[in-house]
Amino acid sequence: MALTDVAVRNAKPGPKTIRLKDERGLHLEISPKGGKWWRLRYWISGKERLISLGTYPDTSLKDARERRDEARKLIANGIDPSQTRKEEKAGIAAVAVTFEKVAREWFSKFKENWTDSHADRTIRRFEMDVFPWIGERPIRDILAPELLTTIRRIEARGAIETAHRTMQNCGQVFRYAVASGHAERDISADLRGAIPPSKEKHHASVTDPKDVAALLRIIETYQGSFVTMSALRLAPMLFVRPGELRHAEWSEIDFDKAEWRIPAAKMKMREQHIVPLCRQAIAIMRELHPLTGAGRYLFPSVRTSARPMSENTVNAALRRLGYAKDEMTGHGFRSMASTLLNEMGWNRDAIERQLAHAERNSIRAAYNFAEFLPERRRMMQAWADYLEKLQAGAKVTPIHAAAGE
User: Fold this and answer.
1) What are the structural domain ranges in the chain?
2) CATH topology of domain 5-94
3) Global pTM?
4) Is there a contact between 242 and 375 (Cβ–Cβ < 8 Å)?
5) Can 241 be counted among the known catalytic residues?
């Protein structure tokens, strides 16, 4: 006898599982705890099978019968509906690629264009702040509010700049997913303005000539290792990034040409960079060479010559010399040089090129590592001479570039 809606609704559980038969293999299974499941019993290839068609009341009697009829059509054609369902689920799983999978694929393709430190920071942000929350989610199913909740966890701990960088990275992953066919759109675009702007940070630096003179004289009083002392003395002359300085290798130094060529792999923008060496820098390096020249790095770690000195070494030395972190940093030597060289009237483009700042024109950037090199050589020597006079206590009136050309 066929079931009715009233009979299904009023069916009560018993001490054991109850099965109420409908028609053509369909029955309602009621567990002792009250759960109700629609089941279809059928035979295919001489074997009995059982398949679930949904739960009541989410699946009504009418819906269950429609699903039964669809399954029986497959059976009539020799197709097992249970196997078909497994294949469909497998197909969905294959299509529903997770955020973490796409993010790691994006990272593996683009990390070759970054410095090692930038790559490490990027993947660490994902692993610490993103993957635990949405890493296992199918990327096409993630909605903007869900991503915002993830980013706001970073914001809540006061790391506003990290929150913005993480949002930017997530946007890159979503755009890569769109290009790869794993997502329909970049949902991060809907969150512009959702995170408060980060306060612009400037690396602490001294730029007044009197303060620069005092700093240079204080550096000469440093009582730590000779290696660190040499790095401190070179930092204001060469004004490269702290990471570039500490990773300097002897094989990159050409004393005959008076230049240091930093390979593209070490540079932030992955472009080879030439640092003209003034006579003062060459003298410092020649004095250092007997101590570390047999090894790879100019400034090796105190623990092993196989690694460069710690990224905190120069800053720690400045602290020992009495400079607080809001007064001077290793990166601040770049701000010092940029400010004063611009005030002296040197070509702004030459200064920017020597600072190895990003070139917006990618085609031009591929060929400009030696751009303005003759002028940069003159500028670097004039800068070192200026610092030398400041350190000596002379009253220095900077000679503008135009007057010296």
Assistant:
1) 5-94, 99-191, 209-404
2) Double Stranded RNA Binding Domain (3.30.160)
3) 0.54
4) no
5) yes
